[in-house]
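TA notes, week 10

Several of you asked for a full example with nothing omitted. So below is the full record: structure tokens for the whole chain, then the designed sequence directly under it. When grading your own attempts, check the secondary structure regions first.
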């Protein structure tokens, strides 16, 4: 059994992420986000559980990694979901990294990451926090921590000297497209890097969304299934619609001379080589050796 695995975005030709490893301390996720793509692939996703024998197996996997390797924590289940408060597997993994020349990118929707600032300060790391909506967070992300708390966490991490990335992801047409601009305005002087992405729709996701918000059914059928395109197993908005949603966000970030990237969009105006924000991770001049 191996838990530290090369990152594989399910063969998507539009993924521009650098080579990296992916690690999930938990199988499934308690955030229950309606737009979550991973629910399609992972059995019993909404019944999250800790990885079996996680500490022993990850210690073994970690010993095989080359110096300078990049780990993404994590890509299909949040490392700081509510289970982490009890099991502390993410905290245990961070402790393993002390004294190692390993780069770490944390991707989360949780202010619980602030609990581990003491360790993060001595690691080669950056933290990416996803903020999709304030007005609909209780509907679209019923099990996740509130967006306002995530924004506060982003600001606190920045003050602690940790590189921070704001993921405005996904931008949902009709539902959050106007709000996305407000989020960028609020975070423009905080985030070191922005990641933008439009909603990619699968039939399962569509059913979950219209069950919670029935009024969008007609518009989403038209935008995605009639006018959109099918790529890598998902329905994308028409090209011109994606440009309309994302270009104003990009222009604002450019005016402030901040970096940005687009996640699996295939549009011509993305900043190449930036992608997930892991370029922000700089080696520390010294590392605290494990006790």
């Amino acid at each position: 059994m191996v838990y530290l695995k090369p990152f594989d975005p399910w063969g998507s030709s539009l993924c521009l992420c650098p080579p990296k490893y992916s690690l999930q301390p938990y199988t499934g996720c308690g955030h229950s986000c309606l737009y979550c793509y991973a629910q399609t692939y992972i059995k019993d996703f909404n019944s999250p559980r800790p990885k079996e024998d996680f500490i022993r197996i990850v210690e073994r996997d970690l010993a095989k990694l080359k110096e300078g390797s990049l780990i993404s924590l994590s890509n299909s289940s949040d490392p700081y979901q509510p289970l982490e408060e009890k099991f502390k597997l993410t905290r245990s993994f961070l402790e393993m990294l002390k004294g190692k020349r390993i780069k770490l990118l944390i991707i989360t929707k949780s202010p619980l990451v602030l609990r581990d600032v003491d360790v993060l300060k001595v690691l080669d790391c950056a933290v990416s926090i996803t903020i999709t909506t304030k007005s609909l967070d209780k509907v679209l992300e019923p099990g996740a921590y509130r967006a306002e708390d995530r924004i506060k966490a982003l600001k606190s991490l920045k003050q602690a000297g940790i590189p921070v990335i704001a993921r405005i992801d996904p931008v949902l047409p009709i539902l959050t497209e106007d709000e996305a601009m407000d989020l960028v305005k609020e975070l423009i002087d905080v985030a070191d890097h922005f990641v933008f992405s439009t909603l990619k729709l699968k039939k399962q996701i569509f059913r979950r969304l219209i069950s919670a918000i029935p009024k969008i059914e007609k518009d989403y059928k038209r935008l995605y299934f009639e006018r959109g395109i099918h790529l890598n197993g998902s329905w994308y908005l028409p090209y011109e619609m994606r440009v309309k949603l994302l270009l104003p966000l990009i222009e604002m970030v450019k005016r402030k001379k901040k970096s940005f990237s687009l996640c699996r969009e295939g549009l011509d105006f993305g900043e190449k080589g930036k992608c997930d924000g892991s370029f922000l991770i700089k080696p520390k001049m010294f590392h605290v050796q494990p006790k």
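The chain has a mean pLDDT of 93. Use that as a sanity check on your answer.
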